Amino acid sequence: MAWTPLLLVLLSHCTGRDQPRGPGSLSQPVLTQPPSLSTSLGASARLTCTLSSGYSVASYTIYWYRQKPGSPPRYLLRFRSDSDKHKGSGIPSRFSGSKDASANAGLLLISGLQPEDEDDYSCGVGHSSGSSYHSHSVSDEEEVRQKPLGPQTLALSRFSVRSFCGGICKGGFSAPRSL
């Protein structure tokens, strides 16, 4: 059973147990998102993705996804800095990324909210250290959804996240590695 030790090593890397913390390690920050946001149609929304203490948002690329019920997550955009960002194909200019260093958070900004913007939104973080790539995937367990509260109100919902590494762990999806 030569595979058993290898499997245990892979699981150890995926869970980040007994690993040093911070960029360049296999340990992952915990991401926190408020469960939902309700705002008016036509208004702007500011969705936050806060990194746990001990990790600096400046060291990470923030990824944003949206997901319709019954569909896989769709890549929206990534943001590391004003000079290092990317938006997915067909994503309207109303969607943009940013960071708030004082809050240690990545931001998804949506201007001029439309009815079709009602969705589940999730964030992830990634960084490269040599050939290592670390990201986060969506976890369904803590999904919180809200329906529109009225004809002029829009509810945006988001997921919490759990970590996985480089597509090795089952049940995850990878952010684009180079765009």
From TrEMBL:
> Residue span of the signal peptide, if any?
1-16
Superkingdom of the source species = Eukaryota
For the keyword Signal, the answer is yes
* Listed Low complexity bias regions: 122-136
InterPro entries linked? Ig-like_dom, Ig-like_dom_sf, Ig-like_fold, Ig_sub, Ig_V-set, IgV_Light_Chain
What SMART domains has UniProt attached to this entry?
A: IG, IGv
List the keywords (alphabetical).
Disulfide bond, Immunoglobulin domain, Signal
Please give the start and end residues of each transmembrane region: none
Question: Where does the record place the region Disordered?
Answer: 119-149
- Is Disulfide bond among this UniProt entry's keywords? yes
**Record domain Ig-like: where:** 29-139
What the entry lists under Gene3D superfamilies is as follows: Immunoglobulins
This chain belongs to which protein, by name? Ig-like domain-containing protein
Q: What species is this protein from?
A: Eschrichtius robustus
